[in-house]
């Protein structure tokens, strides 16, 4: 049995990834964990609602699984810096620890372009601290995806991201050469890149900036 375990299936990337996983016959079971029930039904899907403060309940599903962590929020949505850190650092790190202890095959996580544990910007610093702490765990296969601006239809309205998304078609052609990593990326392409990396099943630690994400997504489209 090949199982995929997904955290954050109701989010922008997570929802796209869930659809891809359900279309991928190589996974005999997909288990989704979230704070609210999904409105998706499928013979291979098990959807469970949990409190992220007691993640130990998930551990029985993690052995020999591919674990995809698509958790993420904003300080505005979370309500405080402390609440933001819980969602974007504490919970993903705890999921990774549980995955390692249970013997998961691979761990996939989304951070952000500019992730840097020494950054003066709180958002980038938290993302960087997560990357640093994950790398210390010595997971058998760690895949970190660092998208730039994520494009897609969100359930929640983010004013700054909406404005940037409108400018994206004008700015993207100018971002060439070393600046390609700053190109916005479709959330659906991040999902495709994650699944493509999962299929390759390469051990070790891997980091994918936006330009590499777009490349993997394009390769995935050709292969499908």
UniProtKB/TrEMBL annotation:
Which SUPFAM superfamilies does this one have? NAD(P)-binding Rossmann-fold domains
Entries under PANTHER family matching the protein: OXIDOREDUCTASE HTATIP2 (PTHR14097)
Protein name per the record: Uncharacterized conserved protein YbjT, contains NAD(P)-binding and DUF2867 domains
Q: What lineage does the source organism belong to? A: Bacteria, Bacillati, Bacillota, Bacilli, Bacillales
**Highest rank taxon of the organism:** Bacteria
What is the source species? Brevibacillus centrosporus
